[in-house]
Amino acid sequence: xxxxxxxxxxxxxxxxxxxxxxxxxxxxxxxxxxxxxxxxxxxxxxxxxxxxxxxxxxxxxxxxxxxxxxxxxxxxxxxxxxxxxxxxxxxx
Length: 92
Fold this sequence. Notes:
Layout: H1 8-20, H2 26-37, H3 43-52, H4 77-84
């Protein structure tokens, strides 16, 4: 017996929980199972179990294509430095 292997009963219960709640991520499933059953299970263990059962769907990526030139090119030297900080939010 391996000391760190999840028991088969827990594996089946985790898969049943995932089938009952398909909207939950592996992290949420691990937290829910830990809270409900009092048995700690890692997110990666849940992910591995769901992957074996082919219950993990590939994420929907939004692909963005880089432009060949800047939309508003800089004219002066100091403008390039200023554009680097335009996306920072000032928290105050």
